[in-house]
From TrEMBL, chain A:
Record SUPFAM superfamilies: Adenine nucleotide alpha hydrolases-like (SSF52402)
Protein name, as recorded: Electron transfer flavoprotein small subunit
Organism, scientific name: Halanaerobium salsuginis
Database matches in CDD domains: ETF_beta
Residues covered by the Electron transfer flavoprotein alpha/beta-subunit N-terminal domain: 22-213
GO MF annotations, alphabetized: electron transfer activity
Pfam families: ETF (PF01012)
Source species, domain of life: Bacteria
InterPro entries given in the database record: ETF_a/b_N (IPR014730), ETF_b (IPR012255), ETF_beta_N (IPR033948), Rossmann-like_a/b/a_fold (IPR014729)
TrEMBL record, chain B:
Pathway(s) annotated for this protein in UniProt: Amino-acid degradation; L-valine degradation
Source organism: Halanaerobium salsuginis
Protein name as it appears in the record: Acyl-CoA dehydrogenase
GO MF terms held by the record: acyl-CoA dehydrogenase activity; flavin adenine dinucleotide binding
One of the GO BP terms on file: branched-chain amino acid catabolic process
Family recorded in the similarity comment: Belongs to the acyl-CoA dehydrogenase family.
Gene3D superfamilies reported in the protein's UniProt record: Acyl-CoA dehydrogenase/oxidase, N-terminal domain (1.10.540.10), Butyryl-CoA Dehydrogenase, subunit A, domain 2 (2.40.110.10), Butyryl-CoA Dehydrogenase, subunit A, domain 3 (1.20.140.10)
Ranges of residues in domain Acyl-CoA dehydrogenase/oxidase C-terminal: 228-376
Species lineage: Bacteria, Bacillati, Bacillota, Clostridia, Halanaerobiales
Residues annotated as domain Acyl-CoA dehydrogenase/oxidase N-terminal: 6-108
Cofactor: FAD
Location of the Acyl-CoA oxidase/dehydrogenase middle domain: 121-216
Superkingdom classification of source: Bacteria
UniProtKB keywords: Branched-chain amino acid catabolism, FAD, Flavoprotein, Oxidoreductase
Length: 263, 381
């Protein structure tokens, strides 16, 4: 049975510098990497396979350069990798992207579980994984830190939430977005890198997804509109309200808020 | 400036760099202080990655990587600790000597021992037979289908931790160099014992010890090549290992340069970073010139080796130039650091300690110069 992983190639933000004159990101020459937490998703899938069997299939949507990230996923233990790519997909937001990915997953065939990273370091939305599950009509569990199989078709998942750890049982198939806490991704080996570089990465295009709704993909199918991007002003320093007791401080705070017509 | 790397080389360099920085570096300072050989556990990741057999052909379980790329990734490892790196280099160089001069069966026997994650050692030097290899006293005496081995070997890299050795003995005491023969000896044979780990000035993460062979019996098929070929086998292996220790020295030099630049940019005197002073710039520039030249020289020798060249002269030139340059570069790094340079809490004094032995081991630079001149003399006749 297939174990699917969704990954994204992103600019290595640790290498990005900001132009002090214009305050803009200097993207030139910045290397592209697998979104860091997506490596945890790959590792989770490979561990799942090692424990319960199956085949790890990695998908990424993006331009042809993203094949490099997919080859790296093969070096990290994945069995197959496909690039979902087409000019028609250009400009897709998270809604359109997750729709396209869900159609690509249907083409791959039956699957037990899908792993994705909790969010990407470039867009930081955390939407694509859960939204893909929505399009597929399957359970989606976010902030996952542990996955195990119970019996034939029940997956026990631990989620890290603010209150602590939540343990949830879900029927297969399901989608998990994982956090860095789930595992420590393994290193590739010299042999696995050499083998991955020889591997062919298959492409899945719009033509391969015959049933796809053309109105739900690309810029046209994307409800998100970016109106403006800007660097926020540095906020002014806060003010510490000094008082002997909490009640007294609260009273002072309320007075200040009333004076500014906030309350 | 740097070498031109292929995309694949860049990936492999990054892999090893990440591994060395994250998994090895945190332990180096303490191990250096104690002078302890790292526990085998610290090599687990390197074994899994295949670094102990990286340039070994796939048929023997290696990754089959070319020498050129192997040198590039070992430079990264040496930047973090050259002693750690040489433990792995000594392992695959010992196997390489069996592949070069032994039968496929012997190579497989040797490879099968180290592949699961074990070390090997090239065991040549004796207390009174260092540069003068022919003065060795160890003997191998044929006894039916076996040889009986006796020797005291010293300064053996990986001596204490190896599971298999390539060892040199005299099969004919009266034949000088031509009386030397090479054998494969497994660590668990009765009569093989090891001495204590030497308390060295530098490369303190690299295990160095005596190894003793007392009436050790090995099957006759453990003789590598034929009787009397040992000296040639040793020289062919040393040519190759000289190029590899060259790459480790380049790693030390690059680290020294990185540290010196970072310090010179940070350290202020007379109201500005010392990097802005011409005298310090001179030190830094000379370090960079030597480091780049050394790297290019190592790279060229590795490429010759990839074409099957035995690099007798080039290996000697590389090892001598790079190890001499390494002294200069690490010494200048200490100079840039000023008083802090000699303090153990700062990184550069270790680099200076680590690099000294590069002028001594794998054949002293004095004997290398003789070899170079002798080869040139032959070439120009």
């Amino acid at each position: 049975m297939n174990i699917i992983v969704l990954i994204k190639q992103v600019p290595d933000t640790s290498e990005i510098k900001i132009d002090p004159e214009t305050n803009r990101l200097m993207r030139a020459g910045v290397p592209s990497i697998i979104n860091p937490v997506d490596k945890n998703a790959i590792e989770a899938a490979v561990q799942y396979k090692e424990e319960y069997g199956g085949k790890v299939v990695v998908l990424s949507m993006g331009p042809s350069q993203a094949k490099k990230a997919l080859k790296e996923s093969l070096a990290l233990g994945a069995d197959e990798a496909y690039l979902v790519t087409d000019r028609l997909f250009g400009g897709s937001d998270t809604y359109a992207t997750s729709y396209i990915l869900s159609e690509a997953i249907k083409k791959i065939g039956d699957f037990d579980i899908i792993f994705a990273g909790q969010q990407a370091i470039d867009g930081d939305t955390g939407q694509t994984g859960p939204s893909t599950a929505q399009h597929l009509g399957i359970s989606r569990l976010t902030y996952v830190v542990d996955v195990s199989l119970e019996g034939e078709d029940t997956v026990i998942v631990k989620r890290e939430v603010e209150e602590g750890i939540e343990v949830i049982a879900s029927k297969k198939p399901l989608l998990c977005t994982v956090t860095k806490a789930i595992n420590k991704p393994r290193y590739a080996t010299i042999k696995s890198i050499l083998a991955a570089n020889q591997a062919e990465i298959g492409e899945i295009t719009a033509a391969d997804l015959g049933e796809i709704d053309k109105n739900k993909i690309g810029l046209k199918g994307s409800p998100t509109r970016v109106k403006k991007t800007f660097t926020p002003d540095i906020s002014k320093n806060g003010e510490i309200i000094a008082a002997d007791t909490a009640e007294e401080a609260a009273e002072k705070l309320v007075d200040k808020l009333l004076a500014k017509n906030v309350l | 400036m740097s070498l031109l790397y292929t995309e694949q080389q860049e990936e492999l360099i990054k892999l090893v760099k990440d591994f060395a920085e994250n998994e090895i570096k945190p332990y180096v300072e303490e191990l250096d202080k104690k002078g302890e050989t790292p526990a085998k556990e610290l090599f687990k990741g390197a074994f899994e990655m295949g670094l102990h057999m990286v340039e070994i052909p796939e048929e023997y379980g290696g990754a089959g990587l070319d020498f050129e790329t192997t040198a590039m990734i070992f430079e990264e490892l040496a930047k973090v600790d050259a002693g750690y790196a040489i433990t792995l280099v000594s392992t695959f160089v010992a196997l390489r000597s069996v592949i070069l001069s032994g039968s496929p069966e012997q190579a497989r026997l040797f490879a099968d021992i180290i592949e699961p994650g074990n070390f090997a050692a090239f065991t040549l030097t004796e207390p009174n037979a260092g540069t003068d290899v022919a003065a060795m006293k160890g003997t191998a005496v044929k006894d039916g289908d076996e040889y009986i081995l006796n020797a005291s070997k010293t300064f053996i890299t990986n001596g204490e931790i190896a599971d298999v050795y390539v060892v040199f003995f005299k099969t004919d005491k009266n034949a000088g160099n031509k009386g030397i023969s090479a054998f494969i000896v497994e660590r668990d044979r009765p009569g093989v014992t090891v001495g204590v780990h030497e308390d060295k000035m530098g490369l303190r993460l690299s295990n160095t010890s005596d190894v003793f062979f007392q009436d050790v019996r090995v099957p006759a098929d453990h003789l590598i090549g034929r009787e009397g070929q040992g000296f040639k086998i040793a020289l062919n292996t040393l040519n190759l290992s000289r190029a590899f220790v060259g790459t480790l020295a380049v790693g030390i030099m690059q680290r020294a340069l990185d540290e010196a630049i970072a310090y010179a940019q940070e350290r202020e005197q007379f109201g500005r970073p010392i990097m802005k002073f011409q005298s310090v710039q001179g030190l830094i520039a000379d370090m960079a010139i030597k480091t780049e030249a050394a790297r290019a020289l190592v790279n060229n020798t590795m490429r010759l080796m990839d074409q099957g060249d035995l690099v007798k002269k080039e290996g000697a030139i590389t090892k001598t130039f790079v190890s001499d340059a390494c002294q200069e570069v690490t010494s200048k790094a200490v100079q840039v650091f000023g008083g802090y340079g000699v303090i153990k809490d700062y990184p550069v004094e270790k680099l200076m300690r680590d690099c000294k032995v590069f002028q001594i081991f794998e054949g002293t630079n004095e004997i290398q110069r003789s070899t170079i001149a002798r080869e040139l003399d032959k070439e120009y006749k």
